[in-house]
Every structure is written in structure tokens, then in C-alpha cells.
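Quick check before the chapter quiz. The format below is the same one you will see on the exam, so make sure you can read both the input and the output lines.
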Amino acid sequence: MNLSSASAASAHPLAAYGWDDGWAREFAAYAERGLLPGRVVRVDRGQCDVVTPAGPVRADTEFVTPRDPMRVVCTGDWVAVDTDGDPRYARHVLERRTALVRSTSSERSEGQVLAANVDHAVICVSLAVELDLGRIERFLALAWESGAQPLVVLTKADLVPDVTTLSYLAQDVETTAPGVQVLPVSSTTGEGVDVFRAIVSGGTSVLLGVSGAGKSTLANALLGEDVMDVRATRDVDGKGRHTTTTRNLLVLPGGGVLIDTPGVRGVGLWDAETGVGQVFSEIEELAEQCRFHDCAHGAEPGCAVLAAIEDGTLPERRLDSYRKLVRENRRIVAKTDARLRAEMLRDWKLKGAQGKAAMAAKRGNLR
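Here is the expected output.
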């Protein structure tokens, strides 16, 4: 981008919402047709709130609602909107740069886009309850797969009794999140908030986490006012109710855009092989040193992964979690991939045959 185009992008009415020279090029064909660019700040029942150069509008998504749930308009999308009319319509959705996708509970294995065009995926983890490292790994796989840069924010740091304990907790999460910054934050005392504000001041960030993780409180701290509704969490388990019921896109006064999301109970993976590999990068690096290229890290000789567990450099919990997420991801992908389904069936039959052979050999030795 040259200086003139950068200046034009920064002077655009939607610059605060993330508009740049790249989006301008993507939109050029629609501009020639007299359509307005806009960013979706909220979606609700087939309609979306869109901010445009002419101001905010409420637009119907009838013309951009395909059968594929992955293409449904979501918060963070850039759309082409007609200039007038009642009702107004979003006519086209610009190609997404990134998309946070999880699987739904549907038996048809459908994906659900949580947010689009995100630069930072912020995983909020409450320190008011015991850390669930497995859940953090799931969120990280989701974040890495999206193309966004993950960040783990440990909220409610003021509830940790001492600095040493806080340091140990942060180290546990850092081990779980290789290559990811881990930041303790307290919206009550202000600890870490300035650092977090500086990180999210560039680009679009989305807050992810379960109910009661402190997402809305953190959003209010960045906004400088109580924009998002906040309710107290239960003392018994630290859980909160869904105070945020829709995904809302907000412009931060210090720069940057923030998407607050409802608490997520389940974090189902959706074709996240790359994301899982990134979360467990140390295991995949060790696997390259195994004697056999198809090593399952079970009982094979020359397995570098098992050797790392034996010498204590790799926690067994990490390998268990890795196996679990790999299996889950393969099941999800297999629902729409006939080749993978056939491969999994062959593996299942082979293991069954091996089990029968082992039992037969055992009975023969007992005679």
C-alpha cells in the first residue's frame, strides 16, 4: 500500500471499523453498481445491523442467506448494501480473511461461524475457578485454525491470593499454549488492562470463553463505560449466566474493534487439523523423530513421543489431550469425507482383527 492509498483508507468513514485498502479493492466492483460498503455489527433473526459510510442501517439478509451454514452472514463480515429502500438489503458478502468456526450439535456435522475477519482471538479464562487446560487447548485449536492470532487472557487475577501462585498458574497455561502470549488481567484493579488495550488496538479482536469468564467485564474496561451487561457469577462454581446473547462488534476508543460473544458451553472442532497441530506443536515435532513415520505413539519401538513422556519432558496429559482432539476432529471430517470414512473403517477392522488374534493366542497359551 502506498502513502496516498493508505491516507485514503485511513480517511474513510469506516476506517475505525477496520476498512483498509485491501477491502476497498475487494469492494470496487460493487461500488460501480452503486452499493455501499458496510460492516456487520450484529445479526439477529435474518436481519443484521450494518455500519456504512451513510450511517447505521438495518438490513435484511434474504439475498445472502445460502443453504451452506458456513456462508451465513455473521458479525464481522463486510457486506455490500443497497443505498436506499424499505427494507434495506445486504446484497453481497465480501470474501472473509479469517473465520472462527466450531461444529454444531447437529448430526449432519454443520459448522457455525462465530466471527469473521478477526485478527486476534482472545481466549478468556477465569482464575476464580480451577483451570481446565483441556478446554483451553480446544479454544486454541479453534483460534489457530481460523487464521487469527490467539491470545490467552487470565481474567480476575485479583482473586489469586499471591504473586507466586499467579505466576505458577500462568506457567501452566503457557505450557499448554506454545507460541501464545498469556496475560493475567484484572478489570477490578486494572492489572494488565493497559497491555491488553495496546494489543487489541490494532485490528479486530474477538472475546471467547465460557459464561462467567469475565468477557463482558473486560469489554467494559476497554470501552471505558458499562456498555455490556454484567451479572455476578455463582460462588460455588464460578459459572455465570449468558449476559451476552448476541455477538456484538464495538469500536474501542483507543483504536481497534472488539467482538464480544456469548459464553460457549461446548467447543466442538470443525476440520481443525492444522489448529490441533499448532496447539500440540511439540508433540508433532517429536513425532518427526519416531522410527516409523506412521507411529501411533502407543507401544511402537523407537517412539520419540513415548520417550519424552518417560523422561518427563512431555506431560502425559498433553498426549492424552492430543489423541482425543485428533480422534474427534477425524470423526467430524469423516462425516463429509467418504475417503476418510473408509480409511477409519479399515483401521477399525484391523484393530478388531488384531484384538481377536491376541485373544486367540492367549487362549492357546492357557491350554
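If your answer matched, good. The first helix runs from residue 3 to 11.
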